[in-house]
């Protein structure tokens, strides 16, 4: 494991053996690696787990419900590589069908263990997210900065897909969507029309817009931002999550910026604007909204208690809001899943007023 600052760590392989390069980031969750590894927001990144023991409960079955994998957040592993301290070769779980190492080999993703992940994380905490590469033997490769590329175009679907058969038609702009967002909408009587990131959905028949999570720099998604701006005039309800928060902010006229090392954990505290209510949330992002650039008719919705960065925005009069964290969790706490209810209530109210 080689960082762009020259730091080198030597570990042992338990995954697929090929040299890879990407942005090295850490996450502090104790559980949920099947969900994290299949989260499209990690596209282009080498993931470092701060929790020392990984792999002890194996990998779950690939059963499907509503044509979605029940226990994964997409149809494949999206991380570029995995770095852990202690890999458990033995696993035990009622739903496990294979080991983490076997899964990595199947998906051609390298994994290293025996590395001091706390020391590695401290370097990232001080210097910020760094470029890095995993090299095997004499297979030398160059560093690669995924943030220079439109990762959303890689993570997004390339066709329109429909899930569920509910009463309310929701267009979901797929920037790298996690399956549990779709599940949460279906559970609330929605038909979910998933469209590509640059698809002009304004001619579709729909009752609300959902902007998904996804990887990379929101400034590279001009096509999505322009489509959001166009639909704002119709005042149909809009909700966004993670990258969706940043895209909604940019559509409103605000700016975004890259965080030093991002938020990737299950324990980020966020404060609801104007209250003393604090929620513990699951997060995975490297960019944030600059609240100082929000127009006068917008306001922050949540704020991160740790570093005061933005965790959501809302329009003061129209049914538009978004969160930087993941209310659908998967994995992580589900304390804020009620926000899906708020969105669907906005949809129901919009339909009632339209009549």
UniProtKB/TrEMBL annotation:
<keyword id="KW-0436">Ligase</keyword>
<feature type="active site" description="Nucleophile">
    <location>
        <position position="242"/>
    </location>
</feature>
<feature type="binding site">
    <location>
        <position position="284"/>
    </location>
    <ligand>
        <name>L-glutamine</name>
    </ligand>
</feature>
<comment type="pathway">
    <text>Amino-acid biosynthesis; L-arginine biosynthesis; carbamoyl phosphate from bicarbonate: step 1/1.</text>
</comment>
<keyword id="KW-0028">Amino-acid biosynthesis</keyword>
<feature type="binding site">
    <location>
        <position position="41"/>
    </location>
    <ligand>
        <name>L-glutamine</name>
    </ligand>
</feature>
<dbReference type="InterPro" id="IPR029062">
    <property type="entry name" value="Class_I_gatase-like"/>
</dbReference>
<dbReference type="InterPro" id="IPR035686">
    <property type="entry name" value="CPSase_GATase1"/>
</dbReference>
<dbReference type="GO" id="GO:0004359">
    <property type="term" value="F:glutaminase activity"/>
</dbReference>
<comment type="subunit">
    <text>Composed of two chains; the small (or glutamine) chain promotes the hydrolysis of glutamine to ammonia, which is used by the large (or ammonia) chain to synthesize carbamoyl phosphate. Tetramer of heterodimers (alpha,beta)4.</text>
</comment>
<feature type="binding site">
    <location>
        <position position="286"/>
    </location>
    <ligand>
        <name>L-glutamine</name>
    </ligand>
</feature>
<dbReference type="GO" id="GO:0004088">
    <property type="term" value="F:carbamoyl-phosphate synthase (glutamine-hydrolyzing) activity"/>
</dbReference>
<keyword id="KW-0067">ATP-binding</keyword>
<feature type="binding site">
    <location>
        <position position="246"/>
    </location>
    <ligand>
        <name>L-glutamine</name>
    </ligand>
</feature>
<protein>
    <recommendedName>
        <fullName>Carbamoyl phosphate synthase small chain</fullName>
        <ecNumber>6.3.5.5</ecNumber>
    </recommendedName>
</protein>
<feature type="active site">
    <location>
        <position position="326"/>
    </location>
</feature>
<feature type="binding site">
    <location>
        <position position="287"/>
    </location>
    <ligand>
        <name>L-glutamine</name>
    </ligand>
</feature>
<dbReference type="InterPro" id="IPR002474">
    <property type="entry name" value="CarbamoylP_synth_ssu_N"/>
</dbReference>
<comment type="similarity">
    <text>Belongs to the CarA family.</text>
</comment>
<comment type="function">
    <text>Small subunit of the glutamine-dependent carbamoyl phosphate synthetase (CPSase). CPSase catalyzes the formation of carbamoyl phosphate from the ammonia moiety of glutamine, carbonate, and phosphate donated by ATP, constituting the first step of 2 biosynthetic pathways, one leading to arginine and/or urea and the other to pyrimidine nucleotides. The small subunit (glutamine amidotransferase) binds and cleaves glutamine to supply the large subunit with the substrate ammonia.</text>
</comment>
<dbReference type="GO" id="GO:0006526">
    <property type="term" value="P:L-arginine biosynthetic process"/>
</dbReference>
<keyword id="KW-0315">Glutamine amidotransferase</keyword>
<feature type="binding site">
    <location>
        <position position="216"/>
    </location>
    <ligand>
        <name>L-glutamine</name>
    </ligand>
</feature>
<dbReference type="GO" id="GO:0044205">
    <property type="term" value="P:'de novo' UMP biosynthetic process"/>
</dbReference>
<feature type="region of interest" description="CPSase">
    <location>
        <begin position="1"/>
        <end position="168"/>
    </location>
</feature>
<dbReference type="InterPro" id="IPR017926">
    <property type="entry name" value="GATASE"/>
</dbReference>
<feature type="active site">
    <location>
        <position position="328"/>
    </location>
</feature>
<dbReference type="Pfam" id="PF00988">
    <property type="entry name" value="CPSase_sm_chain"/>
</dbReference>
<keyword id="KW-0665">Pyrimidine biosynthesis</keyword>
<comment type="pathway">
    <text>Pyrimidine metabolism; UMP biosynthesis via de novo pathway; (S)-dihydroorotate from bicarbonate: step 1/3.</text>
</comment>
<feature type="domain" description="Carbamoyl-phosphate synthase small subunit N-terminal">
    <location>
        <begin position="1"/>
        <end position="135"/>
    </location>
</feature>
<dbReference type="GO" id="GO:0005524">
    <property type="term" value="F:ATP binding"/>
</dbReference>
<dbReference type="InterPro" id="IPR036480">
    <property type="entry name" value="CarbP_synth_ssu_N_sf"/>
</dbReference>
<keyword id="KW-0055">Arginine biosynthesis</keyword>
<dbReference type="Pfam" id="PF00117">
    <property type="entry name" value="GATase"/>
</dbReference>
<dbReference type="InterPro" id="IPR050472">
    <property type="entry name" value="Anth_synth/Amidotransfase"/>
</dbReference>
<feature type="binding site">
    <location>
        <position position="214"/>
    </location>
    <ligand>
        <name>L-glutamine</name>
    </ligand>
</feature>
<feature type="binding site">
    <location>
        <position position="243"/>
    </location>
    <ligand>
        <name>L-glutamine</name>
    </ligand>
</feature>
<keyword id="KW-0547">Nucleotide-binding</keyword>
<dbReference type="GO" id="GO:0006541">
    <property type="term" value="P:glutamine metabolic process"/>
</dbReference>
<dbReference type="InterPro" id="IPR006274">
    <property type="entry name" value="CarbamoylP_synth_ssu"/>
</dbReference>
<dbReference type="GO" id="GO:0006207">
    <property type="term" value="P:'de novo' pyrimidine nucleobase biosynthetic process"/>
</dbReference>
């Amino acid at each position: 494991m080689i960082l762009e600052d020259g730091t080198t760590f030597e570990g042992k392989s338990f995954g697929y053996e090929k040299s890879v390069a990407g942005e090295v980031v850490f996450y502090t969750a104790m559980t949920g690696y099947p969900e994290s590894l299949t989260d499209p927001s990690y596209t282009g990144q080498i993931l470092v787990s701060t929790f020392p023991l990984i792999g002890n409960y194996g990998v779950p079955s690939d059963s499907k419900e509503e044509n979605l994998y029940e226990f994964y957040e997409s149809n494949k592993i999206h991380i570029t590589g995995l770095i852990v301290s202690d890999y458990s070769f033995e696993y035990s779980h009622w739903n496990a069908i294979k080991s983490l190492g076997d899964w990595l080999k199947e998906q051609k993703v390298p994994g290293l263990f025996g590395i001091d992940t706390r020391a590695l994380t401290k370097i990232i905490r001080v210097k910020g997210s760094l470029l890095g590469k995993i090299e095997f033997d004499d297979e030398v490769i160059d560093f690669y900065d995924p943030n220079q590329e439109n990762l959303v175009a890689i993570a997004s679907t390339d066709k329109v897909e429909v899930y569920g058969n509910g009463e309310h038609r929701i267009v979901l702009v797929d920037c790298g969507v996690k399956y549990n967002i779709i599940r949460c909408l279906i559970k609330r009587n929605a038909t979910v029309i998933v469209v590509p990131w640059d698809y002009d959905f304004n001619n579709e028949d729909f009752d609300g817009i959902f902007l998904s999570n996804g990887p990379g720099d929101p400034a590279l998604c001009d096509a999505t931002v322009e489509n959001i701006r166009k639909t704002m005039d119709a005042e149909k309800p809009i909700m966004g999550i993670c990258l969706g928060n940043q895209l909604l902010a940019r559509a409103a006229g605000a700016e975004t910026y890259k965080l030093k090392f991002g938020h990737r954990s299950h324990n980020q505290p966020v404060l609801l604007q104007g209250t003393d209510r604090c929620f513990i949330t699951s997060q995975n992002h490297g960019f944030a909204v600059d609240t100082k650039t929000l127009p006068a008719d917008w306001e922050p919705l949540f704020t991160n208690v740790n570093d005061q960065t933005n965790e959501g925005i809302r329009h003061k009069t129209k049914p538009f809001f978004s969160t930087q964290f993941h209310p659908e969790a998967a994995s992580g706490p589900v304390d804020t899943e009620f926000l899906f209810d708020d969105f669907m209530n906005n949809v129901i109210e919009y339909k009632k007023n339209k009549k």
